[in-house]
């Protein structure tokens, strides 16, 4: 295979800017040949940006899927609730598939995805668990496996969402309400759960979680505030001001607000759109802080802290061994190693730390293309088959939070399978 032909479903931030640029910049390896996107503005921009033929530009995914196979692979970056459906249909057509996370936003979807993995085991079926492709987490795993600090005992992992990122995505944005998407720990952090398993080298045995929507909620809205930031007299003193987040700072998320995020266009859309709303007057219901305690089958323990109220968007971690400790920051691209009985602290800078999850985005799409070209289906480091495990743990974490109970993962998944079978027996 000389050039891998790629079709993209969904021209949002991930589809437009996450993976397609690498494909476009490596025409000797791969080529974007088409797109399906429901929003005309984004569809037209994608067509122009990647110089597509009109015949391969679709408003409806079904129109694309009604054709005979026109590409080698599909990148699925559609809305979370369509991931399972789109993946199933693309696999049935014979495409290799790269599926954005979460791979499904329901437990029954995970059950059926597992069946699809077994049925289409000759096709590459990967998910975007990009953290596995960062030099940072690769190095941490190397340290664990090298045994130079003895046995890994416990992990403290923090997903520092960032106050402005949480306000954008989980208070005003597409992932603000679990009834429309899913719980925060699934939509934001299923790949953090995955990386804990990746580093510990074991499956999660049980989990207990605690969390709530403590601050960004309607209870904190008062008469001195306005429903829209642009007309609020408290705007200048509010860190969550839409004007501060989108107008005064140039960020990639501005492209989610408007396809051409000039100041004029942003101001115009913030006046009436959801991204201009007061964070204390939205219909969000996902937690803004959550702590999970995990025990793995190899007896490694971990805490996972997921919180909106941080200045930086970063992942920080601490590993505690029998003969030392390791701390690190993905954003700083820095790992600090301290061995017991020695005064010297070793500082490691693992490697590339470019935009896109510390270089993980770039290395993931690079590997996806390489695996297709070489036909190495079994060598995918982010197979959906693996990803299902972390998604089940994320669902179990949310169930634990709501039910105030400790959840055993194998029992939880077994019950999910049984429930899915009962429902299908009733329907069919």
Name of the CATH architecture of the largest domain: 2-Layer Sandwich
- What is the CA-based Rg, rounded? 22 Å
Q: Biggest sheet, strands in spatial order?
A: 14-13-12-11-7-10-9-8-15
Fraction of residues in helices?
Answer: 25-40%
Uncertain segments of ≥5 residues (pLDDT<50)? none
- Principal-axes geometry comes out as globular
CATH class of the largest domain: Alpha Beta
| Total separate domains | 3
Mean pLDDT: 93
Tally of DSSP β-strands: 15
CATH homologous group name of the largest domain: Dihydrodipicolinate Reductase, domain 2
Please give the largest β-sheet. Answer: 9 strands, mixed
Structural class: alpha/beta
CATH topology of the largest domain: Dihydrodipicolinate Reductase, domain 2
The SSE string, one letter per element, is: EHEHEHEHEHEHEHHHEHHHEEEEEEHHEH
The count of helical stretches stands at 15
**In angstroms, what separates the terminal alpha carbons?**
42 Å
Strand content: 15-25%
Protein name: Gfo/Idh/MocA family oxidoreductase
InterPro entries: Gfo/Idh/MocA-like_OxRdtase_C, Gfo/Idh/MocA-like_OxRdtase_N, Gfo/Idh/MocA_Oxidoreductases, NAD(P)-bd_dom_sf
Family: Belongs to the Gfo/Idh/MocA family.
Domain Gfo/Idh/MocA-like oxidoreductase N-terminal: 5-126
């Amino acid at each position: 295979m000389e050039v891998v032909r790629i079709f993209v479903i969904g021209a949002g931030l991930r589809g437009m800017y996450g993976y397609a640029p690498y494909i476009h910049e490596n025409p000797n390896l791969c080529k974007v040949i088409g797109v399906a996107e429901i929003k005309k503005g984004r569809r037209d921009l994608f067509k122009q940006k990647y110089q597509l033929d009109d015949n391969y530009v679709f408003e409806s995914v079904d129109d694309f899927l009604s054709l005979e196979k026109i590409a080698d692979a599909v990148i699925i970056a559609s809305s979370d609730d369509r991931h399972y459906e789109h993946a199933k249909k693309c696999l049935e057509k014979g495409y290799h598939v790269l599926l954005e996370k979460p791979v499904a936003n329901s437990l029954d979807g995970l059950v059926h995805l597992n069946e699809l993995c077994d049925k289409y085991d000759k096709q590459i079926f990967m998910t975007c668990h990009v953290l596995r492709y960062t030099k940072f987490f690769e190095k941490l795993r190397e340290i664990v496996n090298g045994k130079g600090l003895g046995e890994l005992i416990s992990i403290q992992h923090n997903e520092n969402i960032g106050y402005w990122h949480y306000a954008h995505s989980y208070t005003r944005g597409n992932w603000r309400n679990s009834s429309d998407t899913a719980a925060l720990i699934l939509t934001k952090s299923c790949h953090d759960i995955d990386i804990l398993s990746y580093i510990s080298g074991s499956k999660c045995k049980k989990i207990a979680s605690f969390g709530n929507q403590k601050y960004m909620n309607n209870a904190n809205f008062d008469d001195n505030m306005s429903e829209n930031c642009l007309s609020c007299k408290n705007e200048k003193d509010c860190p969550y001001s839409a004007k501060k987040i989108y107008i005064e700072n140039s960020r990639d998320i501005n492209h989610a607000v408007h396809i051409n995020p000039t100041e004029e266009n942003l101001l115009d859309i913030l006046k009436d759109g959801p991204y201009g709303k007061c964070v204390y007057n939205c219909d969000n219901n996902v937690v803004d802080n959550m702590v999970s305690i995990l025990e793995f089958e190899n007896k490694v323990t971990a805490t996972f802290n997921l919180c909106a109220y941080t200045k930086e968007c970063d992942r920080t971690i601490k590993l505690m061994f029998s003969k030392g400790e390791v701390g690190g920051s993905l954003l700083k691209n820095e790992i600090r190693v301290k061995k017991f009985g020695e005064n010297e602290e070793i500082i490691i800078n693992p490697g590339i730390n470019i935009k896109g999850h510390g270089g993980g985005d770039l290395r993931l799409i690079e590997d996806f293309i390489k695996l297709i070209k070489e036909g190495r289906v079994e060598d995918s480091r982010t197979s959906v088959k693996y990803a299902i495990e972390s998604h089940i743990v994320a669902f179990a974490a949310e169930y634990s939070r709501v039910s105030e109970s400790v959840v055993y993962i194998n029992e939880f998944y077994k019950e999910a399978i049984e429930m899915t079978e009962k429902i299908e027996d009733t329907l069919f």
